[in-house]
C-alpha cells in the first residue's frame, strides 16, 4: 500500500469515527438528574440561603470557600427523614431525585479541605404506551453518585477561596418490550457513566457582621458514557449575602440560577433568618421559590439547632405545594423533614 493510500485510509477512518461520535444518541436522562437534594438542615431551615454564610461541613455543596471559615474539624451526615402529604405517593416523590431515599450527604471536613459523598439520583420509572396496535413497556433505572474533594484557604485578610474537584459515577439501565400482533421483542441496555466537575467559590468578609459569597457549581463538568454521547452538567451560579446584627440575629439572602443544557434556566430567590439563643439553641425560618408572588410556587422553611462542645444537631422542615398529576389545577401541600448531625474529630 502506497503512502498516499495509507493517508486516505487513515483520513477515512478518522472521519467515520468522528461522524459516529457526532451522531451519538444522548443519554435518556431527566434534565435535573445531576442536581441531587438540597444539603444541610441548617441551610434548609433558613430558606436555603447559605452561599454567603456557609461555614460548616455542608460548605462543599453551597460554597467551597466557606470551609476556610470553619472553627474545627467536623464529620457531618444529612438525612431526609420523612415526607408527609395528602397527595399520592407517586406525586410526592416525583420531584425527589432520590425517590424517597434517606441519606443525602456524608462529609469529613476541616478548615482547609473536605471529602464528601452525595447520592444525586436514584430513579426508576415505568412507562406504557399503546399506539396503532403496538404495545410498548419501558423500564428505566438511573443511579448517580458524586465524590467531592474540596480545598479552601484564606487568600487575603478578608477574602477566602475554595475549589472542589468531583468524580461522578452513574449506572443507566433500560429494558424495553415491544409487542404487536406478530412480534414480541425485548431489548435491554446497561451502561456505566463516569464524569468529573469543578466547583469554585469565594467569600468576602467585609466585617464581623457582613459577608458576601459567590459560587459556581459545575463550572466545568461532563459525564461520559460507553453507548451515548457525553452529558454536559448543569451550571449552578449562586450569590448571597449574610448580615449579623448585635442581637445575634443573622439575615441571609441568596439568588440561584441553574443553566441546564437541554432545559430553560431556573432562577430561585431565598431569604432566611437565624436567631441564636443562650449560646446553645438556634431558631431559623425562611422562604424560597421562583415566584414569590405565587403562593403555589413558594416553599416555607423552619428549623431548630442545638450545639454543645462541637456536637451539633439541626432539624428542618420545608413546606411547599405540588401539582396533582390527575387534576392539574389542584395543588397539595407536602412537608419534608431533614436532620443533620455533626461531631468533631481529630482533636479539635
What separation lies between the terminal Cα atoms? 71 Å
- Briefly note the CATH topology name: Porin
Strand order of the largest sheet: 1-2-3-4-5-6-7-9-10-11-12-13-14-15
Helix content: 10-25%
Q: In the residues, how many domains can be counted? A: 1
Largest β sheet strand count, sense and barrel closure: 14 strands, antiparallel, barrel
Portion in beta strands = over 45%
What form results from the Cα inertia axes?
globular
SSE succession: HHHEHEEEEEEEEEEEEEE
List low-pLDDT spans: 7-23
Q: Taking Cα atoms only, what radius of gyration do you get, to the nearest Å?
A: 23 Å
> Mean pLDDT score, rounded?
87
Number of strands: 15
* CATH superfamily grouping: Outer membrane protein transport protein (OMPP1/FadL/TodX)
Which class best fits the helix and strand makeup? Answer: mainly beta
Under CATH at level 1, the class stands as Mainly Beta
Under the CATH scheme, the architecture is: Beta Barrel
How many helices? The count is 4
Can you give a write-up of this model?
This protein has about 350 residues and is mostly beta strands. It has a single domain (about 10-345), classed as Porin (Beta Barrel), CATH 2.40.160.60. About 10% of the residues lie in helices and about 60% in strands. The protein has a 14-stranded antiparallel β-barrel. β13 (about 300-310) and β14 (about 310-325) form a beta hairpin.
Provide key terms for this protein.
14-stranded antiparallel barrel; Porin; globular; 10% helix; 348 residues
Amino acid at each position: 500500500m502506497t503512502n498516499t493510500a495509507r493517508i486516505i485510509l487513515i483520513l477515512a477512518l478518522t472521519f467515520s469515527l468522528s461522524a459516529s461520535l457526532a451522531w451519538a444518541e444522548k443519554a435518556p436522562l431527566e434534565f435535573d438528574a445531576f442536581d441531587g437534594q438540597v444539603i444541610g438542615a441548617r441551610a434548609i431551615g433558613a430558606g436555603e440561603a447559605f452561599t454567603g454564610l456557609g461555614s460548616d461541613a455542608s460548605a462543599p455543596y453551597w460554597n467551597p470557600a466557606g470551609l476556610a471559615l470553619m472553627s474545627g474539624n467536623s464529620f457531618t451526615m444529612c438525612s431526609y427523614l420523612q415526607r408527609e402529604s395528602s397527595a399520592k405517593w407517586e406525586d410526592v416523590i416525583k420531584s425527589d431525585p432520590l425517590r424517597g431515599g434517606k441519606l443525602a450527604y456524608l462529609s469529613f471536613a476541616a478548615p482547609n479541605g473536605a471529602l464528601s459523598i452525595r447520592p444525586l439520583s436514584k430513579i426508576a420509572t415505568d412507562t406504557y404506551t399503546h399506539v396503532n396496535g403496538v404495545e410498548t413497556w419501558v423500564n428505566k433505572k438511573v443511579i448517580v453518585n458524586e465524590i467531592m474533594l474540596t480545598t479552601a484557604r484564606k487568600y487575603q485578610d478578608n477574602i477566602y477561596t475554595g475549589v472542589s474537584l468531583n468524580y461522578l459515577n452513574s449506572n443507566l439501565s433500560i429494558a424495553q418490550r415491544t409487542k404487536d400482533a406478530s412480534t414480541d421483542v425485548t431489548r435491554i441496555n446497561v451502561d456505566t457513566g463516569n464524569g468529573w466537575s469543578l466547583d469554585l467559590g469565594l467569600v468576602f468578609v467585609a466585617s464581623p457582621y457582613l459577608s458576601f459569597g459567590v459560587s459556581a457549581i459545575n463550572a466545568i463538568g461532563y459525564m461520559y458514557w460507553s453507548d451515548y454521547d457525553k452529558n454536559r452538567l448543569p451550571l449552578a451560579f449562586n450569590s448571597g449575602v449574610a448580615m449579623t446584627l448585635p442581637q445575634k440575629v443573622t439575615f441571609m439572602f441568596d439568588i440561584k440560577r441553574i443553566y441546564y443544557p437541554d432545559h430553560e434556566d431556573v432562577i430561585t430567590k431565598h431569604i432566611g433568618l437565624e436567631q441564636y439563643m443562650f449560646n446553645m439553641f438556634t431558631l431559623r425560618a425562611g422562604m424560597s421559590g421562583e415566584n414569590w408572588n405565587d403562593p403555589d410556587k413558594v416553599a416555607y422553611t423552619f428549623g431548630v439547632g442545638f450545639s454543645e462542645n462541637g456536637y451539633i444537631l439541626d432539624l428542618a422542615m420545608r413546606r411547599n405545594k405540588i401539582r396533582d398529576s390527575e387534576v392539574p389545577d389542584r395543588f397539595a401541600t407536602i412537608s419534608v423533614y431533614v436532620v443533620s448531625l455533626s461531631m468533631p474529630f481529630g482533636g479539635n
